Amino acid sequence: MKHKNIPFFTPFIDEDDINYMTNTLKNTKTFCAKDIENKIENMFDVEHCVVSPNTSFAIKLALTVYETKRADEVLMSVNSPVVLPQAVRHLDCKPIFIDTMQNNYNMDIDMFEKYLKEYYHKKIKIAIITIMPDTLTDIDKLQKICKRFNIKLVKVAFNMLGQKYKNCEISVKKADISIFTIIKQQMNKRVGDLAFMTTQDEIIAEKIRVYSQNGLPPIYFDDMGLDYLYDVNDIGYDFLVDTLSITFNLSQLNKYRIFIQKRVEIAKIYCDRLQGLKHITIKKFDNSYIYNELIIEVDKNRDAFAKELKQKGISTGLHYIPLHLLTYYKEKYKNKITKYPNALSSFSRVLSLPIYANLTYSQVNYVCQQIIDLDAKWV
């Protein structure tokens, strides 16, 4: 059993996707933003959905509608993707990093609360949290803390549609604004990269729409019915989305439950085969998770282990590099490497394995066998 190349991720594309895209290109059937927004509102019983070109733009819109200004502070986990703090910095605000829990990749809510008790001031406006794979944070507790300190909660969930939290769809609810994606993306291979913003607040939803379309009001064509007259009510952004990306996301949305089922089956193979290894730790299988990612821990020399896998054709990933270790934030805020010990400890060990709908069972077992063989000789 030999596999030359197992990518960390490739999108599942079938005939339905191709037909959707072909019909759009031929103008036989064209979808607009409202089509997918309405579908998400109906599928997940959420009041308002607005689509954005990507997660970075969506976060910037969230910060804008809550009138975040220069020198305001935004709290987030130090273990977050770079799109979170960079959106904050583009508005000349300051990201405040909070350490993760021990043996968990999510932000430590007790540390979050402690920071607010000790340092709260009126410039702290928003908290942006990322829901990490395979672990769910106590969102109810986090919401109560934010409400007590009058802080808006923005939640980001990458490719987690279908994940439940106390029978609630975690991607679209349990925050003032929820931001989620349907299609997993790779840094240099973007396909259908859209982000969706959901809220129960009609006024906020309306502001998001206005800001995302150059400050034009929702109905901006003139009373004469001409398509070339318009008005601008505010300074906005050109964050309109393209038709092809909408089409592909609609087609993929139709299959999201199928994708979950396949990932769960793959995760069970990983969890069963990789339990009890000397140098590898993997959480026990839990069928309540949708396994948008699968993370193992290597007890030492993680990078060397990943390199060995790469030489065997297996690509891996990280979720994530702690933000205070990145050059810009390290130099900008003079953070010591040891300032966030829990995140630092996890980062030295974590490794994300390939898990996606068009990964074959043969490929999964190949990955498992290579890890088992490496573990046996790892020192």
Record the SSE blueprint:
Blueprint (H helix, E strand, L loop, with lengths): L14 H11 L7 H12 L3 E5 L2 H11 L7 E5 L5 H8 L3 E5 L10 H11 L4 E7 L8 H10 L3 E6 L6 E2 L2 E2 L7 E4 L14 E5 L2 H11 L30 H11 L2 H18 L6 E3 L11 E5 L3 H10 L15 H7 L7 H7 L2 E4 L7 H17 L2
Parallel strand pairs: 2-3, 2-4, 4-5, 5-8
Antiparallel strand pairs: 1-9, 6-7, 8-9, 10-11, 11-12
What characteristics describe this protein?
Aspartate Aminotransferase, domain 2, Aspartate Aminotransferase, domain 1, 379 residues, 2 domains, 13 helices
Report on this model:
This protein has 379 residues and is α/β, with parallel strands linked by helices. The protein folds into 2 domains: 239 residues, Aspartate Aminotransferase, domain 2, CATH 3.40.640.10; 122 residues, Aspartate Aminotransferase, domain 1 (Alpha-Beta Complex), CATH 3.90.1150. 38% of the residues lie in helices and 14% in strands. It contains 13 helices and 12 strands. The strands form 3 sheets. It has a 7-stranded mixed β-sheet with strand order 1-9-8-5-4-2-3, sandwiched between helices. Helix 3 crosses helix 7. The protein starts with 14 loop residues before the first helix and ends with a helix.
